Amino acid sequence: MSATDRTAPIVELRGIRKSFGELEVLRGIDLEIFAGEHVVIFGPSGSGKSTVLRSINLLEPPTSGSLKVAGVEYGPGVPGEKAGRRGKPLELRRTVGMVFQQFNLFPHLTALDNVALPLRSVRGVRRADAQVRSAEALRRVGLLQRAAHYPQQLSGGQQQRVAIARALALDPKVMLFDEPTSALDPELVGEVLKTMREVAETGMTMVVVTHELSFAREIGDLNVFMEDGVVVDSGPRGFFEETTSPRAREFIMAVR
Amino acid sequence: MYDWGLIWQHHGILVNGLLVAFKVSLFALVISVVGGLALAMMRMSRPPVSWIAVAYINIFRGVPALVSVIWVYFGVSLLLGVDFSVFEAGVIALSLLYSAFMAEIFRSALSAIPNGHREAGHALGMRPIRVFFSVILPQAVKIALPNIGSMFIGMLKDTSTFTVIGLLEVVRVTQNLVSQTFQPFVLYTAAAAIYVIAAFLIDLVFRLIEGAYASPPRGAVSRLLRSRRQRRIQSLMAELGS
């Protein structure tokens, strides 16, 4: 779908493990994502796919393993390996954007100010410039006319598109989508997928956790099937038809 | 028998008493909002910091205003060797007590904000302090406002106990008038009415503030407050939309 730079991965996970108390939800994840690539992570609930996504911006810091984003290393590191210099989570999050299942717009701010607040506080953009840039970001997702509305006055689909605009306005190198359509009424799913498709066409590196397998088929340059905290199988375009993993096949059949 | 004309005759002094009570409460309100917020944040952080807040809250919620003001005016002043004025003592006493109540109000308001908002702020790369002040606190204050209003009414009523240290608030003023006129029924009825009216007015003001900060705006006041901003957005929309 898009030209990907294959020289060095922009996101690299090595041996990522994560435990919540006794429960180990990630049991060693290795993943390489190249710039411009669109990665789809899917699998049954509880498989750890959201946790993988949330470890990429350290919202869920891994218990062990190494995370490398845009050449900078984060996380506690792989056991037995010499620990090098580690980047700060704040810097990482300024290169990685995220879209949540529950949108998480700030309800006390208008759509415009939802986009403008992080622009001002993260990028230090002046108020007037931030407003112009925010309006442009809203226009890109087709919501300029809703700029003065509060989240409560927007449909779920519109809220999610504002959330996408808010993340995009900060010019991230990678965009993470955590089940972006799962909380939406069925008739609103289409508009959000359309917006995501448009983001994909700009060449943005995307990692998408989703149950929308037809959308996944369409954009997935790399498709990752997870279960019980491990990657069971992964593959390029055509993965959904060609995977030899019985569990992946079974899941794909069941979701369809 | 009952000389109701006395109320009008002395309305100046009575209103003055209310103003004194109001002033003490207002100072104490500001201090206890700040103090309560600080305590709430301590209460929600890790031990041992949270223990300090828990201890403070549980002790000062249990002290009656009367005891508090006597303790401050006659006790603490002696201990520190500072002579508090009755006004200062009243403010300090109320602030000590109501910080504890405010802490609990803020704690429940802060924990009512979905964690997703905090996460979204962090994921956007905002500093935790900025997330707190720009995302969490504005929402929490809105939730806390009605309760803060109730606390303010409580403070105003509690100033009536400061009559013991001679603060010229409503009750003290009334007592003085009764000793001159021997009309306790009339004058205490007036005092009670003053408190009721004051409480009603405070409630009204807090409702107005609440409405003003509602999102989306609710009512004329909040629309007016945000009209400039809305106009700016409209002009941006027109500019970029064409």
TrEMBL record, chain A:
Q: What's in the keyword line of the UniProt record?
A: Amino-acid transport, ATP-binding, Cell membrane, Membrane, Nucleotide-binding, Transport
One term of GO molecular function: ABC-type amino acid transporter activity
Q: Which residues form the ABC transporter domain?
A: 11-252
SUPFAM superfamilies reported for this sequence:
P-loop containing nucleoside triphosphate hydrolases
State the compartments where it is located: Cell membrane
Carries keyword Transcription? Answer: no
Pfam families recorded = ABC_tran
GO cellular component terms attached to this protein's record:
plasma membrane
Describe its membrane topology. Answer: Peripheral membrane protein
Q: Which domain of life is it from?
A: Bacteria
- InterPro entries, per the entry: AAA+_ATPase, ABC_ATPase_HisP-typ, ABC_transporter-like_ATP-bd, ABC_transporter-like_CS, MetN_ABC_transporter-like, P-loop_NTPase
PROSITE patterns named in the record: ABC_TRANSPORTER_1, ABC_TRANSPORTER_2
The entry's family comment says: Belongs to the ABC transporter superfamily.
Q: What is this protein called?
A: Peptide ABC transporter ATP-binding protein
TrEMBL record, chain B:
Q: Which Gene3D superfamilies match?
A: MetI-like
Q: Which PROSITE patterns match?
A: ABC_TM1
| Entry annotated with the keyword Lipid biosynthesis | no
Stretches of the chain forming a coiled coil according to its record: none
Q: Where is the ABC transmembrane type-1 domain?
A: 14-206
Q: How does it sit in the membrane?
A: Multi-pass membrane protein
What sections of the protein cross the membrane? 20-41, 53-74, 86-110, 131-153, 185-206
The answer to whether UniProt assigns keyword Transmembrane to this entry is yes
Pfam families the record matches = BPD_transp_1
Instruction: List the GO biological process terms.
Output: amino acid transport
Q: What is its main location?
A: membrane
Compartments (UniProt record): Cell membrane
- What family is it from? Belongs to the binding-protein-dependent transport system permease family.
NCBIfam families linked = HEQRo_perm_3TM
Q: What is this protein called?
A: ABC transmembrane type-1 domain-containing protein
